[in-house]
C-alpha cells in the first residue's frame, strides 16, 4: 500500500526564509554594489534591500500556502473527495487539477477492474466442472463450488483433496505446467469414497495470481458416461444369464400345454400357476436390474433430499404386514428419540429399509420375531456421528464364509431356496450401492442357528443444515 501524503509541506520556516533569500539575494547584491560605487546612497540601498526582503518573505508565504493547498488537494483526490481551495499560483493550480483528473480516472479504472474481477469469480464459482488453484508447493489455495461439492464428504468441515494430490499423474502434470509446457489431459481414478473417473488438466499461470496461485487444475467428471457404458454391458450380460432359465421353463410349459396337456384341465391349472410364478419372478428380476443400474449410474453424485429413517421404517413394516402375518411373525420397532431427518434420497433409502426387512421376512423362521432398531451412533474411530437402522431376524443364520460375498449381484447362499421364495439375488447389491452413494456402510453379523443382523449406517448430515463447504481461500 503506498504511503499517505503528509498533511502539509515540511519546515515551513525554512521554506519561507529560503524563498525570501532567493528573491532578495540578487537585488541585494546589486544594491550593495551601487552603494559601493556611490551610484545610490547607502540609506536608499538599505531601504530597497529591506523592501526586497519583505517582498521575498511575502512570496515565500504565498508559495508555502499554495504548496499546502496542493498537498491538501492531492490528499482529497487520493480519498476521492471533491477538490476545494486550489492553489492560486497557475503552475501549482494546473498540477492540482491534473492530479484530480488522474485520480478520477484511476478510480474509474479500479472500479471497472473490481467489477470484472467479481464477475469472473462468480463465473468460475458457477462453472459445472471443478476448478482448483495450486500454489508453488502444489497445495490448494482456491476451489470453486463444483470442486468443493466433489471433494467434501458428508458431515466434513472442508474438502479432502488427499487422494487427488497424491496421484502421480497430477504431480507430473503440475511439474510440467510450472515449467511452462503445453498442458495435456490425463485420466484420474479416485477410488474413495465412491470410485470416480476424471479427466484432469494442469495449466500454468504466468504471471502467478496475487494470492500465490501458480497452477490451475481443471477436472471433468466422466463417471456417469463410464457408468452408462458399464450399465448397458452388465444389463445385457445379467439379463442373458438370469432370464435364460425362467424363459426356458415358460417355453417348455407352453409346448406341454399345446401338446400332451391340451385337454388336461388339472395339468393346465398346475402349469399356469407355475408359469405365473416364473413370469412374476422375471418381472421382479428386471425391475431389480433396472433399479440397480439406475443406482449405480447415480452413485457418484451426492444426494440432496431429506430422509426420515423412522418414518421409512414404519411405512415399510406397514406395507409388508400381509406377508408378515402370513408367516405369523412379530415385528418390534424401536426408535431412538435423538434420531433426526438427514440429507439423503428418501426413495433410495426406502429401498434399503424394504430390502432389509423383506430379507428378514423371507429368511426368518415361521412364527418368529423381527427386531427393527433406528438409533444414533457417536463419532468414533475416524467415522463421524451417524444414524443406523438394524434389522435382526431369528432364522437359520448365514455361514461365516458366505458373509463377505452377500452384496455381490446374484450371489445366493442357497440358490434353490432363494428362487423358491422369490429372491432375485440383487437386494443386498442394491443396498450396498445406495449406501455407497450416501457414504454409508452395511454391516452384517450372523450366527448359524440363531439368526442375522443387517445394519445400515449413514452419516448424520442434518437436513436443516446441509454439509458445510470451505471458502475457496481457506481450502
Strand content: 15-25%
Q: In one word, what is the shape?
A: elongated
The termini sit apart by 27 Å
Specify the helix fraction band. 40-55%
Tell me the number of helical segments per DSSP (H or I, 4 or more residues long).
14
Give the rounded overall mean pLDDT: 77
Largest sheet: 5 strands, antiparallel
How would you characterize the overall build of this protein?
- With 475 residues, the protein is α+β, with helices and mostly antiparallel strands.
- Helices cover 51% and strands 15% of the residues.
- The strands form three sheets. It has a five-stranded antiparallel sheet with strand order 2-1-5-4-3.
- Strand 9 and strand 10 form a beta hairpin.
- The C terminus is likely disordered.
What keywords describe this structure?
475 residues; five-stranded mixed beta sheet; disordered C terminus
Ordered list of secondary-structure elements with their pairings:
Elements: H1 12-36, H2 42-79, H3 90-126, E1 131-134, E2 140-143, H4 145-151, H5 162-165, H6 168-178, E3 186-190, E4 196-204, E5 215-221, H7 223-242, H8 244-258, H9 265-298, E6 306-307, H10 309-319, H11 321-326, E7 330-335, E8 342-343, H12 346-363, E9 369-377, E10 386-393, H13 415-420, H14 427-437, E11 441-447, E12 451-459
Parallel strand pairs: 7-9
Antiparallel strand pairs: 1-2, 1-5, 3-4, 4-5, 6-8, 9-10, 10-12, 11-12
Helix pairs in contact: 1-2, 2-3, 7-9, 8-9, 9-14, 10-12, 12-14
Short summary of the structure?
Helices cover 51% and strands 15% of the residues. With 475 residues, the chain is of the alpha+beta class.
